[in-house]
């Protein structure tokens, strides 16, 4: 009997389609990221990749790299619905990548020219590694949560003392929001060996690729994880997880993953970049207006972009019923009018500023000197291109079709963060 069919593990390997054992290469990459070594590797890679790009003619084919999470929906919907072709673009079938480190490496090596990254990742890439990456839009808003194992008896943040929690990446919205919530509950986030004894008020954090989180929780190797969908929904259905809090109920309409492109394309291939963002914006709006249909399309019963059953993806995109999440009380702000996941592609500067400011106070591994010297106002202007996404939203008249927009001033908003 395999470990995922054991009596002590409620998950079935027939439902969980990923191989839980990392390949040697992915293990090395994730270990490097955890130790800060990937930063050094990227330092050299950025220069070589720029030189290679300069020597080669522009390849107009859209090459998408993505993780199997609902964050990638606008890119996948744009591909599945033929929106890139309708813009006159050639596009390859999107490439599924299991972890953030190999996706970063693939983008840095120019294997991909259109990706989604956790929003703090391009901050780290551009200002710690001098890699020319540009944010051209948001992939989604909300769409994440903190789930705990039923074996833990945890019903509130204060109960997390002495627990082991997995995060998808140090440079993630998840790590920022989690640590803010833990500190608010009087707890101390730490990063140490899992075998080291924790003080009652300490919570140990570790990096774990999203696909590995549900089986790790089911096997009681961790006590909780915070991640993007559909791994929270899948954890609820198959891994003995319960939702402690939706992140969109803490930070209203927050960004998580962002759409990223190479600087040279954004700056030099303006017509191509605009067409790419036209398709992405159409994909985003379609996902917002047709969540259940899109969930089925993405699932393994549909176009198989996500190797998850449709039931799990539908739950991940539509199940936000306060009555179902009262114990624990995972939805405290019903009046916010947010969904479990929403899609607004406009990258508000106020959110970028909030993330950069909070990153400076967030525990991560590696050298964070670069963060302390960052001028957040400069980052909002330097890291993000607002023109292509705004042009597309104006062209298609879709400002009123997405969440969190002030019709009188659609490109400006105030951040709402309430624990």
UniProtKB/TrEMBL annotation:
<keyword id="KW-1003">Cell membrane</keyword>
<dbReference type="GO" id="GO:0012505">
    <property type="term" value="C:endomembrane system"/>
</dbReference>
<keyword id="KW-0472">Membrane</keyword>
<protein>
    <submittedName>
        <fullName>ABC transporter substrate-binding protein</fullName>
    </submittedName>
</protein>
<dbReference type="Pfam" id="PF13379">
    <property type="entry name" value="NMT1_2"/>
</dbReference>
<dbReference type="InterPro" id="IPR044527">
    <property type="entry name" value="NrtA/CpmA_ABC-bd_dom"/>
</dbReference>
<dbReference type="InterPro" id="IPR006311">
    <property type="entry name" value="TAT_signal"/>
</dbReference>
<keyword id="KW-0997">Cell inner membrane</keyword>
<keyword id="KW-0813">Transport</keyword>
<comment type="similarity">
    <text>Belongs to the CmpA/NrtA family.</text>
</comment>
